[in-house]
Write a structure and sequence with these properties.
Chain lengths: 287, 307
């Protein structure tokens, strides 16, 4: 409708605009294609100073190096473990807390609200030293549980779940209470099943953030058999090549490491895109 | 009617009713318990601990000595602290401004695209880097900028140019950090703006078109003013994150460019948990925490007064 009387100037604008946006999208796609292509090159080709958007002779040498010499499988599985356990606990605890915030009145509600919302103002980076001391005192140093527990509940998800629960009609719960149901039944049997879209959103966001966790691993893990993915990848992909010219691992293996870390994220993103968008919106409105 | 029914039976059922109410409330506390325990253990107690440690000559074994403001004084007298503070302010300020205004412009441009499939496709793609960890994003860019077969130097060689050691040039260090951060975050913020644009009342545009307003006029007089609230919220979020930069620098730094890009949170980590000057590092963390709090509160106040 708007385009019906497009003037010459407008058409020129639309053309330039399209070209600009295409080049913008290319700055996102080209690096990823480059990474993928290099990961499938031979050791030798991965060192050649050429633009690689497709491997000349496709090879899995890089992946073999990655799984045999670099032994990425252990960190990968550790990461899966941390991500699954932390996401499960996150969803349980945050939805429980979100539900409590929707209860009309109980003794100490004001205190509970304050305790639950204030951590939003306390960035993890700024308390790493005392958290390190705490983890050490609790005997959790060099365990995966340290990583799981330090950031397992977040104000963001609690408030998101609270908002979802508030959208569920009270009449359902009231009729259940008349039938003698308690808070537990009301939460598990009525509210939780009806809040599936909200649950999906926090599952996905927690999955991504746990999968990508770096700082807790840097702080709490010492022994290499406990390493999680990002920590293991850090030493692999971020070689100190600017300082020394000797590289221990070829480029193809470095890029294969990136591919292995990206694949689960892209898979989740492709299958659950609508929840991402939904979550982003809720997050922005909430703040 | 039901109310009266309850009152009539009150005497008979009074003790089970009270018991049931108690049981219900008890369940509420049970549901909130894990959250409270975890927040206390890993947020509140560390926060108080951090404050206490900052006044101590902290040691893990043996008695930690109370030293008053010694750590704070030592911090503000160390040139190294002011160097990382300066880096943080420069990087932080650039990130705050760029990752708000650039995505807004992108959203305005994307919104002009009529072809729906292409619009959705480009949104999907530009959001992707936000999903990736800093190890991934840092790794990709370090490789692309590398003199060892990096794509950018490969492209330069096509024009007969010598390979540039991008990551080893102090002059490039900050622009690279700011640019890569923008690359990672722009798509995400852009989607927030697109959502805000989608929420603008279409009647405004119809009225403007009847008045003969062209595309640019509609953008300037309707879309941009309607986006101001979103812009403010995004600026606020950016400000809250400005002083906490850590992951990007931890991943992308090297000894050559470190003097230009080392940020406060890296300094706190390095002095505190690598060199184990725990009291000193805690004092800095406390100061930065308070500074963040003040800036955040000021920004919030500013926003509330404006709109």
């Amino acid at each position: 409708m708007a385009l019906r009387r497009a003037s010459a100037g407008r058409r020129l604008f639309l053309l330039i605009n399209s070209l600009f946006l295409i080049s913008l999208v290319l700055t996102m796609i080209v690096p990823l294609v480059n990474v993928l292509a290099v990961s499938f090159t031979t050791d030798l080709e991965s060192y050649e100073n050429t633009i690689k958007l497709w491997p000349r002779e496709p090879s899995v040498e890089g992946y073999i190096t990655l799984f045999q010499r670099v032994a990425i499988l252990r960190p990968f599985l550790n990461n899966v473990y941390v991500t699954v356990v932390a996401t499960f606990l996150h969803v349980m605890f945050c939805s429980m807390a979100g539900y409590v915030l929707t209860r009309k009145s109980f003794v100490g509600k004001v205190i509970v609200i304050a305790l639950v919302t204030l951590p939003n103002m306390i960035p993890f980076e700024m308390i790493i030293i005392p958290v390190y001391v705490t983890v050490k005192r609790l005997g959790l140093m060099d365990t995966l549980w340290a990583i799981i527990l330090v950031k397992v509940v977040t104000t963001f998800s609690i408030l998101l779940m609270k908002n979802y629960f508030e959208g569920i009609p009270k009449s359902l719960e009231e009729s259940a209470f008349i039938d003698g149901a308690g808070e537990m039944t009301s939460f598990f049997k009525i509210y939780l099943p009806l809040a599936k879209p909200g649950l999906a959103t926090i599952v996905i966001f927690q999955f991504v953030s746990q999968w990508n966790h770096l700082l807790p691993a840097v702080l709490f893990l010492n022994s290499s058999e406990k390493y999680t993915l990002q920590l293991a990848l850090k030493s692999l992909v971020v070689s100190q090549e600017v300082v020394s010219t000797t590289q221990s691992v070829a480029n193809n293996a470095r890029m294969a490491g990136i591919v292995v870390a990206i694949v689960p994220l892209v898979a989740v993103y492709v299958f659950a895109q609508k929840y991402f968008i939904k979550g982003i919106m809720v997050g922005a409105v909430k703040e | 009617m039901q109310g009266r029914h309850v009152i009539v039976n009150d005497n008979m059922k009074s003790s089970p009713a009270v018991w049931q109410k108690l049981k219900r409330t008890r369940m509420i506390y049970l549901l909130i318990l894990p959250t409270i325990v975890l927040f206390l253990t890993f947020t509140y107690i560390p926060l108080v601990d951090g404050l206490r440690i900052s006044f101590q000559d902290f040691r893990f074994v043996g008695q930690s000595r109370f030293v008053g403001l010694k750590n704070y004084i030592e911090a503000v007298r160390t040139p190294g602290f002011w160097r990382v503070f300066r880096n943080t302010v420069i990087l932080g300020f650039s990130n705050v401004v760029l990752t708000a205004f650039v995505p807004m412009i992108l959203a305005l441009l994307l919104n002009e695209i009529r072809f729906k499939v292409w619009k959705r496709f480009s949104q999907t793609i530009i959001y992707m880097p936000h999903l990736f960890s800093w190890v991934i994003v840092g790794g990709i860019w370090i490789f692309m900028l590398s003199p060892n077969a990096g794509i950018i130097n490969a492209a330069r060689s096509l024009f007969g140019l010598e390979p540039l050691y991008f990551m080893a040039k102090e002059a490039f260090a900050r622009p690279i950090m700011i640019g890569v951060n923008l690359w990672k975050q722009a798509g995400y913020v852009c989607i927030l703006f697109l959502a805000a644009i989608a929420g603008i009342n279409p009647e405004l545009y119809e009225a403007a078109m009847i008045d003969g307003a062209g595309g640019f006029k509609r953008a300037f007089y309707i879309t941009i003013p309607e986006l101001l609230r979103t812009l403010q919220v995004i600026l606020l979020l950016n400000v809250m994150g400005a002083l906490r930069i850590f992951n990007q620098i931890y991943v992308m730094r090297n000894e050559v460019i470190a003097p230009k890009i080392d940020v406060i949170m890296f300094y706190v980590y390095d002095r505190g948990l690598v060199q184990f000057k725990i009291g000193y590092a805690s004092a800095i963390a406390v100061m930065i925490f308070l500074l963040t709090l003040i800036i955040t509160l000021l920004a919030k106040r500013l926003i509330r007064y404006k709109v």
